[in-house]
Amino acid sequence: MVQQSQVTVLYFARSAELAGVRSETISVPQQIKSLKLWEEIESRHPRESTSAVEDKPKDIIKITSEKLSVDEVSQLVISPVCGAVSLFVGTTRNNFEGKKVVSLEYEAYVPMAESEVRKICVAVRQQWPVRHIAVCHRLGLVPVTDASVVIAVSSAHRAASLEAVKYIIDTLKANVPIWKKELYEEETSSWKRNKECFWTKKD
Fold first, then answer.
1. Dihedral sign (CA 74, 75, 78, 83)
2. What pTM was estimated for this model as a whole?
3. Alpha-carbon gap, residue 150 to 70, rounded angstroms
4. Cα–Cα distance list, 116 to 82, 111, 112, 160 (Å)
5. Using CA atoms, how far apart are residues 32 and 2, in angstroms rounded to an integer?
6. What is the dihedral angle through the alpha carbons of 192, 195, 198, 201, rounded to the nearest 10 degrees?
7. How far is CA 125 from CA 79, 105, 165, in A?
8. CB 59, CB 76: distance < 8 Å
C-alpha cells in the first residue's frame, strides 16, 4: 500500500478567488513529485473556472422604432476582462443651414441594414482586438436631442475600442441602407443623403 501524506495548500490572490477557499488539506502519496502535486491541485480546481469570468465575444445589432438608452447600450458591452468601453452617440440637432430642425425621421430596409452591420462587425474583429460590439439605430421620428444611433465597443485597452467605434460609424453611414429626412419648423422637410454613401458618389 502506498503511504499517504497530508499536505496543506494555501491560496492567495487570484488563485484564492478561483479555488473559492484560502486553504485546504489534501492526501497525496508521500513520494509525490512537485509537478504531480501541482497537477493534483489543478485537478481539484479546473481551469474552466476562469472561462466563467471571461464571457464570449458578442455582436448586438438592434434597429428599432423604440427610444434608445445610452446607458442600456453601454451595459451590453461591459466585460470583466475589458478596461475600456468607447461610445458614439448620434443625436438630432436643432438646425441645418439656417433652418430650424424639429426632428429627424429615419427609414430602413431592416434585413439588409442588419446584414450590412454584421459585415462591419466582422471587419472590426479582423482589425482590432475588441470584446463586445453593440450597434443600435432608431427608426421613425427622432426629436431634437434624442439619440438616433448608439455604438458601443469594449476592449482590453482604449485604443482598439476608440478606433473601432470611429470605423463603425463611418462605415455605417457609407454602406448601410438607412435614409434620413429632416423636418423643419416651417412644416417643410427634406430627405438627406450622407456624403459618405457609396451610391451618391460620382465617378
1. positive
2. 0.69
3. 7
4. 26, 9, 6, 21
5. 11
6. 100
7. 16, 31, 12
8. no
Distance CA 131, CA 143 (A): 32
Helices (H), the chain: 13-19, 34-44, 48-51, 70-77, 110-127, 158-175
Q: Cell 431592416 sits at which residue? A: 110
Contact 64, 105 (CB under 8 A): no
Inter-CA distances, 69 with 19, 62, 79, Å: 38, 12, 19
The one-letter amino acid at 64:
T
- Name, in order, each residue with C-beta under 8 angstroms of 186's C-beta and a sequence gap of 6 or more: 99, 100
Q: In this predicted model, what pLDDT tens digit does every residue of 150-173 receive, in sequence order?
A: 999 999 999 999 999 999 999 999
Residues in a beta bridge with 106: 140, 180
Distance CA 149, CA 43 (A): 48
Task: Express each pLDDT in 21-75 by its tens digit.
Answer: 888 888 888 777 777 777 788 787 765 444 444 578 999 999 999 999 999 999 9
